[in-house]
Design brief:
The protein has 205 residues and is of the alpha/beta class. It has 6 helices and 9 strands; from the N terminus they run E-E-E-H-E-E-H-E-H-E-E-H-H-E-H. The strands form 2 sheets. The chain has a 7-stranded mixed β-sheet, sandwiched between helices. Strands 2-3 form a two-stranded antiparallel sheet.
């Protein structure tokens, strides 16, 4: 699948309670806002990129991205962000697949979309994994998932991301963990420093 047929969405709609309730997307990382780093990794891999975030979208104007609020009330978590992305993808390029990735994963691999797309085959959900651990919020999803996801969010049956996505035709793609985990997420200041050290050492692009 060509990159133009994949639309990416950075998930930044959470409350970041473990970061003291700060706007995680805007915390400093390697001299720039964290969201800028994630956007830089994903832009070359997708046809178009958007950001799922709630609140005033003007704070993200520097990115030049469409800002997609959760389509369901109450900030119900990353599944709502995925639904926002699927709705946007369907309106932008109806036959495209939607890549979701969280804003707190700045070390995402450069071959993320390429490997997920091959595994998905244009129809299945493809989820990332490393060291035997599933990362369901890093997933390539077909637009046909929209209806079931919207219904699940509205009636409360959607549950957690991994459990929901595993209920559909899916495949898991494993990445190696050598010097660092490419899907390490940042929940505490110490983890921010550790990820910055990975970049400074030249281990991640």
């Amino acid at each position: 699948m060509h990159a133009e047929r994949v639309l990416g969405v950075i998930l930044a709609g959470g409350r970041a309670t473990r970061m003291g309730g700060r706007d995680k997307a805007l915390i400093g990382f390697a001299g720039a806002p964290l969201v800028a780093r994630v956007a830089a990794v994903l832009r070359p891999q997708v046809g178009r990129l958007a950001l799922n975030a709630n609140g005033d979208p003007a704070r993200f104007a520097f990115l030049g991205l469409a800002v997609l609020p959760d389509p369901e009330p109450g900030q119900p978590g990353p599944l709502a962000g995925m639904l926002a992305g699927l709705d946007w993808a369907a309106a932008t390029e109806p036959d495209a697949m939607m890549l979701a990735a969280p804003v707190d994963c700045p070390l995402l691999p450069a071959d993320l979309v390429a490997r997920l797309a091959v595994a998905a085959g244009g129809r299945r959900i493809a989820m990332a994994s490393s060291a035997g651990r599933l990362h369901p919020v890093v997933a390539l999803c077909p637009p046909t998932l929209r209806q079931a996801l919207r219904a699940g969010l509205r009636d409360g049956s959607a549950g957690k991301v991994g459990a929901f996505l595993r209920g559909f035709d899916h495949v898991v793609v494993e990445w190696p963990v050598d010097r660092f985990d490419p899907f390490a997420n940042l929940n505490h200041p110490g983890e921010v420093a550790a990820a910055e050290a990975v970049l400074q050492a030249g281990w991640a692009r």
